[in-house]
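Hi R.,

As promised on Friday, here is the backbone we talked about, encoded as structure tokens. Could you run it through your design pipeline when you get a chance and send me back a sequence?
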């Protein structure tokens, strides 16, 4: 049985597309069952629709900072889709321990830095400002600590002398699109019972 994956986005959804494309490969073992955004402006929603993937919007703004109520609505949106696994892919809302505990071991995130360096925002500028010679991206299991869960995969790229945050982000993003599907594939393979020959 294919794992049913929900992908959470806030923006253009290029990482979401890389996951969806990978899941279209035969025998991947997972299907994109839902793309959920926290704003109807998220460009990735249209892309998901072109793939025929169900979409949902749970706008955080009407909740005015009531994270528990926002997350209850997230759970309501997930419920009809029988979701096994959540992939956060550029989802720009911090989730609370309450929500995360309900998905422990079944939720991962991609972050554009070599964790544990540069948790949070502005990762590329921070790497440049620090004079780092390498930057990169990480996929990690989601725990209550922001960008702090166990690493599932990481890719490095060079930081070039004339890099801006934008040029570095573009170089890292190319690797994000390779890394996230690779980690998802490994995760799915680990969870899928193998048929026995004897
Ligand atoms: C990616 O760099 C992701 O790592 C970061 O936000 C960006 C989202 O890009 N957190 P996209 O929406 O997947 O195109």
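Update: got your reply. Pasting your designed sequence below so it's all in one thread:
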């Amino acid at each position: 049985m294919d794992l049913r994956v929900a992908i959470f986005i806030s923006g253009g959804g290029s990482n979401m597309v890389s996951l969806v494309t990978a899941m279209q490969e035969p025998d991947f073992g997972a299907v994109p069952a839902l793309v959920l955004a926290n704003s109807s402006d998220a460009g990735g929603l249209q892309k998901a629709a072109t793939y025929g993937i169900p979409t949902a919007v749970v706008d955080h703004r009407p909740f005015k900072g009531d994270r528990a109520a926002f997350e209850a609505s997230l759970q309501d949106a997930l419920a009809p889709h029988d979701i096994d696994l959540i992939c956060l892919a550029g989802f720009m809302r911090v989730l609370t321990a309450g929500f995360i505990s309900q998905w422990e071991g079944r939720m991962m995130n991609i972050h554009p830095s070599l964790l544990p360096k540069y948790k949070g925002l502005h990762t590329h500028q921070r790497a440049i400002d620090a004079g780092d010679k390498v930057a990169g991206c990480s996929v990690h299991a989601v725990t209550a600590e922001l960008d702090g869960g166990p690493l599932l995969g990481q890719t490095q790229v060079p930081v070039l002398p004339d890099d801006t945050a934008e040029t570095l982000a573009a170089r890292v993003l190319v690797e994000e699109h390779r890394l996230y599907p690779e980690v998802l594939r490994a995760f799915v393979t680990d969870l899928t019972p193998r048929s026995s020959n004897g």
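One thing I noticed while checking it: The mean pLDDT is 96.

Thanks again,
M.
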